[in-house]
Amino acid sequence: MIYGITLILLSIIAVPSLILSKKPNAKELLEKVEPYQGWIGIIFCFWGIWGLVTAVLNIGWLTSVPIWWTTLAAGSLVEACLGFLLGFPLINKFFLSGNEKAREKAVGIRAKIAPKQGKLGILGIIVGAWMIVASFLFTIA
């Protein structure tokens, strides 16, 4: 359930224009979060990567709870991508500053994903909501 909640929060940060069109008073809150957006992105990128690692390590769940395993993998992938997009400036500064080849590759990946940030954010809200529901429906014994 925590993956779903964090994915929804990250998605809300990733698509502020969508939120502002529905709730104009949310602008103040989003402006307060903006200076920390890079750090939030890095944390969620690693959280999403950890979720993917958890899914791979528990690949046996495919036989007992395939829907939950697929949900965990999909949600973690969306979370890692959104975190990467939001945290890219800091990731570039702290982790890729010494390796030009890695920096170029990261810039290429970001160029491919960045135009889809809005759609990825909406997908994140949907998948996050499903993760919360699925956490109640598919318990792992």
UniProtKB/TrEMBL annotation:
The chain crosses the membrane at residues 37-60, 67-91, 120-140. Keywords: Membrane, Transmembrane, Transmembrane helix. It comes from the Bacteria. This is Uncharacterized protein. It comes from Chitinophaga hostae.
